[in-house]
Design a protein that fits this description.
The chain is built from twelve helices and ten strands. It is α/β, with parallel strands linked by helices. It has one domain: Alpha-Beta Barrel (TIM Barrel). The structure holds glyceraldehyde-3-phosphate, 1,3-dihydroxyacetonephosphate and zinc ion (ZN).
Length: about 300
């Protein structure tokens, strides 16, 4: 089946109490690892690319990799999404390039400016059969063009969401409930707790409306250990507890964004393989292990966190 939008995926996910995994792609092995897992488990999946990923891989290559995955995985719906689009131009470029979904991230702007820019993207996207995600509230962490410190991050205000969705016509909404981007989400010794009260208040105000959770990596400690035992230095890398993600997926969260966990698996594969085989210099040797680690991460997420197995 051709690339799809997220509309049907989200409708079913909301009704079924599960979420669709949105995994960041940067190269061929990552695309393959993600989609092979989704295909084997008959799970719908969202591939997403940031502006940085498009710059790294080049837009034409990235789209061809995704088109190849669609051919290779005929049994599952796959959506192609722009992650954290910073302005109208990049959203338009992705829509024109064949993406089926875009995020306009104007969350660092004023409420009125966020509405105006989101509305502009929605008008162009909908005219081209593409859906739009926007964000209210701010996550801590580093995105391509936006750096937000923990002190500056702010939870989504539930009292803003109805007006925002009505005035923009957006299709899904990312909210800030305590997650953050990257591998260092919480201080050691603290008890990570997402603000489910905000999620519930938002979903009361937006019945059956799909909510998106960014910064949802769990930072698997087995990969952190492998990286650190093989020359890495990731100190106090801590992620979101998976039981809380599962809980979010049962509620209104229909899309869960995961990038850092794939990066950890990928890097662990390279570091451990090269340490074990100092004589190796064929990239296929270590990239095979990295690709398998990506596949293992996605398999675990689909089965044990998202609940999307068999929902294709
Ligand atoms: O939320 C950000 C994603 O992890 C993408 O990161 O901008 O470094 O590609 P990136
Ligand atoms: P992580 O850094 O937690 O994987 O979050 C990724 C993300 O939100 C991409 O938009
Ligand atoms: Zn994000």
């Amino acid at each position: 089946m051709p690339l799809v939008t997220t509309t049907e995926m989200f409708k079913k996910a909301y009704a079924g109490g599960y979420a669709i995994g949105a995994f960041n792609v940067n190269n061929m092995e990552i695309v393959q690892g993600i989609t092979e897992a989704a295909q084997e488990l008959k799970s719908p999946v969202i591939l997403q690319a940031s502006a940085g990923a498009r710059k790294f891989a080049k837009p034409a290559y990235l789209m061809k990799l995704v088109e190849a995955a669609v051919i290779d995985c005929p049994d599952i719906p796959i959506a192609m999404h722009l992650d954290h689009g910073a302005d109208f131009e990049i959203c338009k470029s992705c829509i024109d390039n064949g993406f089926t979904s875009v995020m306009i991230d104007a969350s660092s702007k004023s409420f009125e400016d966020n509405i105006a820019l989101t509305r502009k993207v929605v008008e162009y996207a909908h005219a081209h059969g593409v859906v739009v995600e926007a964000e209210l509230g701010t996550l801590a962490g580093i995105e391509d063009d936006v750096k937000v410190s923990a002190e500056d991050s702010s939870y989504t205000r539930p009292e803003d969401v109805e007006e925002f969705v009505t005035r923009t016509g957006v299709d899904s909404l990312a909210i800030a409930i305590g997650t953050s981007h990257g591998a260092f989400k919480f201080k050691p010794g603290t008890d990570p707790k997402l603000r489910f009260d905000i999620l519930e208040e938002v979903s009361k105000r937006l019945p059956e409306f799909p909510i998106v959770l960014h910064g949802a990596s769990s930072v698997p400690q087995e990969y952190v250990k492998i990286i650190n035992e093989n020359g890495g230095a990731l100190v106090d890398a801590i992620g979101v507890p998976e039981d809380q993600l599962r809980q979010a997926a049962r509620l209104a969260v229909c899309k869960i964004n995961i990038d850092s966990d794939l990066r950890l698996g990928f890097t662990a594969g390279i570091r451990s393989t090269l340490r074990e085989h100092p004589e190796m210099f064929d990239p296929r040797g270590y990239l095979t292990v990295s690709r398998q680690n990506v596949k293992d991460v996605v398999t675990h997420k689909i089965k044990d966190v998202l609940g999307s197995e068999g929902k294709a």
